[in-house]
């Protein structure tokens, strides 16, 4: 049972990534593309956290309660990495949305097919 | 000196970038002056550190007192020091060029300098870091600030170019993150030296997967072939100094990341063949595309991609002379492309479409700028008394040494293509009659100084290449010697 649960987490992370990739590459609306990028990011983040997860493990906090006891802890490194990655993803999304606003003001559309002053 | 510490390369521009608005509140003109002080200091310490670096030594800085391999470390060796030197010097020159940038107000130059300083911090961070996740963070800092710089002008199609760049950039950095995740799950470490030791335990198939993810992640900044669709648009829509900074810093840090992981971390058959094929594709396609460009900035962008392809070919030879040639090319590409973008920026200042045909007869109208462009063009195609000659000849020699005669022939043919399209411009500059009613924008004194410094570098290195060949040889040795890198970073580990 526990195994299926682990696999389902990995599976949903990969599913999220595929959904995000699909939206970013296929959709014509600029906003939807940005949303796709966010979903793709979320998939990778979920994969990160899933990798650091251990069964029956405690939070990786070094305290009085765990000293000298044989306690299994989750891997803290992926969690630290995913926090950084979330912040970076937030920054990218913010810049992307700002660019979408600029594009909308200039071209009066968010359809990517109608914005082609430069050769795509 | 005590003050010379590699950590300043990253910390100083980051702090300065976010302090700039506050400093502007105190005294407006400081917005322009302060970044220059920061860049000058960085250039000074990079010279100081690089010249005092002992042969075969590397400076290791551990951040926040965490011991390696757990903490983040900065590795200032001969290779990374050399690239840092190029980046800091160029950053200073870009500041000199854009000191009077768009006189319309301090608001614009404040935004510009904040983004520029962030980009410099990011690209130096990529070069110095010894931690693979930290590498990703710096790549993203560089990328986000360059999206902003691409979209800098509101009048042009900057936002469109920037969105295209962002779309490719965000996708490829996600792949990079995925590659780092796979490496971490397989080895349990993020330190590059420890990864290099433990990489042997990973199956070749997994290694190949990670390698491809990394190629995608770094290839975008290194302007590698399928990922360089953003390059011509970004270079033509961004301000001229930004285009120069992209060629000199962004592309340099991208290729550094690629080469560092290929040479130091991975241990895989066929890895250099892949790089060779990508380099050849990049070079041939970019140089052919450059031939039919009508816009001078787009042409320079394609030429820049072609040069990056040549650098990849030189790196893919996997010999010391190949790395030597590649490093010399990187130096020349940084200096000469910057010169070309600087001068082209003023040559086409008043024309709206930046067409090559608008340049007729500018040799008489703007003698200094046209001369500088001509000098850059002669240098980049590799004519003798200029620095480009030495790098081109060392690439050819390195390729011949390896016995890749077909590659040698391809390089020669694309060099001829390069000569054709650069000389087309020179012909227009000097041997055509000027259009009537041309508007002329005289280059400002600071831009002239920046171009003059670059010209002096190009000619001096062209006549006395011995000035830098020793340093380049050291840098090539440092990159080639994987065991020494691991030994410097982790003295207690043995490579077996």
Task: Write a concise keyword list for the protein shown above.
heterodimer; A: 120 residues; mainly alpha; Helix Hairpins; 67% helix; 0% strand; elongated; B: 496 residues; two-stranded antiparallel ribbon; 20 helices; 2 strands; 74% helix; globular
Shape of chain B: globular
State Rg of chain B. Answer: 22 Å
Largest sheet of chain A: none
Biggest pleated-sheet summary of chain B:
2 strands, antiparallel
Q: Output the radius of gyration of chain A.
A: 20 Å
**What is the string of helix and strand elements of chain B?**
HHEEHHHHHHHHHHHHHHHHHH
Could you name the ranges of chain B where pLDDT drops below 50 across 5 or more consecutive residues? none
Short overview:
The complex is a heterodimer of chains A (120) and B (496). By secondary structure, chain A is mainly alpha-helical.
Describe the overall structure.
The complex is a heterodimer of chains A (120) and B (496). Chain A is mainly alpha-helical. In chain A, 67% of the residues lie in helices and 0% in strands. Chain A has a single domain (2-114), classed as Helix Hairpins. Chain B is mostly helical. Chain B has a domain at 283-463. Chain B contains 20 helices and two strands. Chain B has helices at 7-26, 30-51, 78-97, 106-128, 132-150, 158-187, 192-198, 204-219, 230-237, 240-265, 271-291, 296-316, 320-347, 362-365, 367-381, 387-402, 405-431, 445-463, 466-480, 482-489; strands at 59-62, 73-76. In chain B, strands 1-2 form a two-stranded antiparallel ribbon. The longest helix of chain B is centred in the middle third of the chain and has 30 residues, at 158-187. Chain B is globular and about 70 Å long. The chains are: A mainly alpha (120), B mainly alpha (496). Chain A binds chain B through residues 21, 24, 30, 33, 37, 40-41, 44, 47-48, 51, 77-78, 81, 84-85, 88, 91-92, 95-96, 99-100, 102-103, 106, 115, 117-120, and chain B through 133, 137, 140, 144, 147-148, 151, 154, 157, 159-164, 166-167, 169-171, 173-174, 177-178, 181, 184-185, 190, 233, 237.
